[in-house]
Amino acid sequence: MKSFVAKDPGADRAWLLVDAADQPLGRVAVKIADALRGKNKPTFTPHVDTGDFVVVVNAEKVKLTGNKDDQKIYHRYSGWRSGLKETKASVMRERHPDRMIRLAVNGMMPTNTLNRRAIRRLKIYAGGEHPHEAQNPQKVDWFSES
Description:
CATH 3.90.1180.10
């Protein structure tokens, strides 16, 4: 038997459209990270980038369970003394709703060059509109009740 090694799809990558409205942040982020890496395909190979483009809409309507809107705190550090900034999730949702999803997905991706390239294929929009109609993204329904 010969071993199968996937090839980089290049321009033939699929475009997926994810509606994050009323979906738990962590569950959406797991599915997006898997699609970016290509883990949702039977031809997944860890050292080859076989992932797809992912367009996320309605990022401002993503659901945080429990009291996380008031209790969850995002940290960023400028590198300078006294440069630690803290932002509550409710404030982050108002100002930068796309960053909540980007940070969650980025935390679920391994830290290497392959995945730094994959995270560039993630397109996140706060509302329901996106400028990628020409790519004809396929709407995925990962959370349908069946």
